[in-house]
Write a structure and sequence with these properties.
Largest sheet: 6 strands, mixed
Oligomer: single chain
CATH topology of the largest domain: Rossmann fold
Number of domains: 2
CATH class of the largest domain: Alpha Beta
Strand order of the largest sheet: 5-6-7-3-8-9
Structural class: alpha/beta
Shape: globular
Length: 249
């Protein structure tokens, strides 16, 4: 069974519907990119998947033993969050909150998980640094490590490279690719079409209050939805688009 199965999902709030007729599924090991114009409902979909808001209609089912508290989440940062006065270690450790149940303290297991996540993201040497004093790229690594502490099977990323310089952007995308290669299922909201087409194996495009496309990335570049975003220049060789390691022949 799929990790996530959405059928005729309706996204919205008390003041109205954002999008409807959303149908897709995510299986273990997938890398899904969610794309679409501003206001199409991408972030609302993320919050719905996290059970932060309820579906306005349709069905959202978790399968394969996935629990909502086992999902890692990297949200878009606000200016206030960027200025948070805590140490790197404290922030990453807080990603284990859903694991401690009714305990009032973090145990050995949570501390070991925190150390492993920091090592994986290359931020162990920043352990005692104040989060607010880090660069944008370093901050995103810290938040990704925090999300990993919660994630067992699935991680959700909402515009993870927003505001980063090109070097930090490339470094973060490289880390996300490695997490995926290591077996993590990834769902990412992105306006970066190069990354969406280069890294993902599935695309979900939302627009005009409904779903425009869901399917494999290599088929997306041949679809009407692809051109609906104004992407009217097809690559000469689509392997260059959805395989970042392709060097040509």
């Amino acid at each position: 069974m799929a990790l996530i199965n959405c059928r005729d999902l309706v996204l919205g709030y008390e003041d109205g519907i954002v999008a409807e007729n959303i149908n897709f599924e995510v299986n273990a090991g997938d890398y899904l990119c969610i794309i679409g114009e501003n206001g199409a409902g991408k972030s609302t979909l993320m919050k719905t998947l996290l059970h932060l808001i309820k579906p306005a209609g349709g069905t959202l089912e978790f399968g394969d033993g996935l629990k909502e508290y086992e999902i890692g989440y990297l949200p878009q940062q606000t200016p206030v969050q960027r200025d948070f006065p805590a140490s790197v270690y404290e922030i990453v450790l807080s990603g284990n909150l859903s694991r401690i149940g009714k305990r009032f303290f973090f145990g050995k297991t949570e501390k070991e998980r925190t150390a492993a996540a920091m090592e994986k993201l290359g931020i162990t040497d920043l352990k005692k640094k104040c989060y607010r004093n880090l660069s944008g790229g370093q901050q995103q690594r810290v938040l990704l490590a925090r999300a990993l502490c919660a994630a067992d099977k699935l991680i959700l990323l909402d515009e993870p490279v927003s505001g980063l310089d090109p070097k930090a952007t490339d470094a973060l995308y490289s880390l996300i690719r490695q997490l995926h290669r290591d077996g993590m299922t990834v769902i990412m909201v992105s306006h970066d079409m190069h990354a969406a087409l280069g890294d993902s194996d599935h695309i979900l495009q939302i627009g005009e209050h409904s779903q425009l496309y869901f399917g494999r990335t290599e088929e997306y570049v041949k679809s009407k939805a692809y051109f609906k975003l104004g992407l009217n220049q097809r690559p000469r060789d689509t392997r260059q688009v959805y395989n970042p390691d392709y060097k040509g022949e």
